[in-house]
Write a structure and sequence with these properties.
Elements: E1 10-18, E2 21-26, E3 30-35, E4 49-55, E5 58-64, H1 65-68, E6 81-87, E7 90-96, E8 98-106, E9 110-112, E10 125-131, E11 134-139, H2 141-146
Parallel strand pairs: 2-11, 5-7
Antiparallel strand pairs: 1-2, 1-8, 3-6, 4-5, 6-7, 9-10, 10-11
């Protein structure tokens, strides 16, 4: 699992929701979690780039993960958050509907994206984690950002 940092065969994941589905991301990539704030729209950017924010003097691009992943758009609620993530030596924000929890999962409970059916698009997925009768789609933030000119 090259995309995921492991310690003692365990992963520490932040779990968040987009719609009704739960997604996970390696906690070591997360810089902080912010409440929604004013986002300045930047002209001539793709629709999944919501705009930029000023975070303690640094200007960060903010991605709308729902739009980026091709999910149905939804209304932002009080539970919506911006997850500030380290991606390719840059810091970016990802808008999520709700941050649910931080959890630890044994790496033996993770299926790689390659193990999924070849009919599924796994471009932004690093794996599927199983825990307590739940499935978490683990996202690869590097792929989400690196293909952002599409």
């Amino acid at each position: 699992m090259a995309d995921i940092d492991t310690i003692n065969d365990e992963l520490k994941l932040i779990i968040f929701k987009l719609g009704r589905e739960e997604y996970g991301m390696d906690i070591l990539r997360i810089q902080e979690i912010k409440r929604m704030m004013g986002i300045t729209r930047v002209p001539a950017t793709p629709s999944f780039i919501r705009g930029v924010i000023n975070l303690r003097g640094s200007v960060l691009p903010v991605f709308d993960l729902r739009t980026r992943l091709g999910l149905v758009e939804g209304e932002l609620t009080e539970a919506a958050r911006i997850i500030v993530v380290l991606v390719n030596e840059s810091i970016v924000g990802f808008i999520v509907d709700e941050v649910v929890e931080v959890t630890t999962i044994n790496t033996s409970n993770v299926e790689t994206a390659n193990a999924l059916s070849s009919g599924l698009s796994t471009e932004y997925i690093s794996g599927i984690a199983k825990a307590d009768n739940r499935l978490f789609i683990m996202l690869n933030p590097d792929a989400i950002v690196s293909n952002s000119q599409a």
